[in-house]
């Protein structure tokens, strides 16, 4: 998912959707009593939400790699090196599991 979303053409689309939602909230703010601050709340929400999804995804993948390593390396010792290397390749990608323009901080 992150590889797909970080492709340049998809990153543009991703940010366009976020900007369009914000634009609608600015419109609501200008035309609704009590709507002040909606766009700022959106900015706050979307940043926190995307960072949380990225963190969860990174943790999930890391945990599954640990489980797979434990199981496969012990259960199939003849293939342990091959499995370990394949899982290490996946683990190396974990830090890149972020949304375009929303790095974890």
In short:
The protein has 105 residues and is mainly α.
Key terms:
single chain; 105 residues; mainly alpha; 4 helices; 0% strand
Question: How many structural domains are formed by the residues?
Answer: 1
Could you say which structural class the secondary elements and strand pairing correspond to?
A: mainly alpha
Give the distance, in angstroms, between the N- and C-terminal Cα atoms. 20 Å
Count up the helices: 4
What fraction strand? under 5%
Mean pLDDT: 92
Range of helix content: over 70%
| Number of beta-strand segments | 0
| Series of secondary-structure elements, N-terminal to C-terminal | HHHH
- Based on CA inertia axes, which overall geometry fits? elongated
Question: What is the C-alpha radius of gyration, as a whole number of Å?
Answer: 20 Å
**What does the largest sheet look like?**
none
Unreliable stretches, pLDDT < 50, 5 or more residues?
A: none
Oligomer: single chain
Structural write-up:
The protein has 105 residues and is mainly α. It has one domain (2-96). Helices cover 75% and strands 0% of the residues. The protein contains four helices and no strands. It has helices spanning 2-5, 8-31, 38-75, 80-92. α2 runs antiparallel to α3 (38-75) and α3 (38-75) runs antiparallel to α4. The mean pLDDT is 92.
């Amino acid at each position: 998912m992150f590889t797909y979303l970080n492709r340049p053409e998809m990153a543009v689309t991703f940010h366009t959707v976020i900007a369009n939602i914000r634009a609608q909230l600015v419109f609501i703010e200008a035309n609704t009593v009590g709507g002040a601050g909606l766009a700022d709340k959106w900015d706050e929400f979307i940043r926190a939400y995307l960072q949380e999804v990225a963190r969860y995804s990174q943790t999930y993948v890391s945990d599954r790699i640990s489980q797979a390593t434990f199981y496969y390396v012990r259960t199939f010792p003849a293939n342990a090196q091959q499995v370990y290397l394949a899982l290490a390749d996946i683990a190396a990608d974990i830090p890149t599991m972020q949304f375009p323009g929303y790095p974890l901080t």
